[in-house]
Specification:
Elements lengths: L2 E7 L15 E8 L4 E9 L13 H9 L2 H8 L5 H14 L7 E5 L5 H11 L4 H4 L4 E5 H9 L19 H23 L1
Parallel strand pairs: 1-4, 4-5
Antiparallel strand pairs: 1-2, 2-3
Helix pairs in contact: 6-7
Length: 193
């Protein structure tokens, strides 16, 4: 499987809302868009109370968090790893699950900055991204795929209330890529059989 959906969540959900902005959650899911198969999955929530990992939250994010569902607040407070540990572990996870001979399609949603956030965090910890991540990563954007699929009448299925993780949606978004991929390529696979 050389497709992964990466979601890196920060308090402001901007590339760098504050110079000292930190990651609060990371999810990465490997999948095969041709078969719809979901593979290995990584998820970590950063401990925001760790004195070595001070998370600076914008007033808007703090307000949003306080007004959020209790599951969201609980998930943020239940973080159990340092940011550095989460960042380095997801890099190891991506490297271990990527075929060395094929290009890795790293899917992102929304503003498409998850890969850039991860690379910036790796650099913040004094590492070279080329030393901890595969060399053959090609960014891909779910929002572009959804825009193209909308022209065919595609409407994403609703997110399940029983989703496994509260702070990220990478598995759900991987399912969307699979649905769209199969919808857009089925006419061509039928011809080849």
């Amino acid at each position: 499987m050389n497709h992964c959906m990466l979601e890196v969540s920060t308090p402001a959900n901007s590339l760098r809302g504050f110079p000292e902005e930190r990651i609060i959650a990371i999810e990465c899911v490997f999948f095969d868009p041709e078969t719809g198969g979901i593979g290995q999955q990584y998820y970590r929530v950063v401990n925001i109370a760790d004195e070595n990992n001070v998370v600076h939250m914008s007033h808007a994010y703090f307000r949003q968090l306080m007004m959020a569902d209790s599951r969201v607040r609980s998930a943020v407070l239940a973080g159990d790893v340092s940011e550095k540990e989460a960042v380095m572990d997801v890099c190891k996870f991506i490297s271990a699950n990527t075929s060395k001979s094929r290009q890795l399609h790293c899917w992102q949603h929304g503003d498409g900055t998850s890969l850039a956030r991860l690379i910036m965090a790796v650099e913040d910890y004094g590492c070279s991204p080329s030393n901890v991540l595969p060399q053959n990563i090609k960014p891909a954007h779910l929002s572009t795929l959804i825009t193209v699929a909308a022209a065919t009448g595609y409407v994403p299925h609703p997110r399940r209330d029983s989703a496994q993780f509260t702070l990220t949606d990478a598995a759900y978004r991987a399912e969307q890529v699979c649905e769209i991929w199969q919808r857009l390529t089925e006419q061509f696979t039928d011809l080849s059989e």
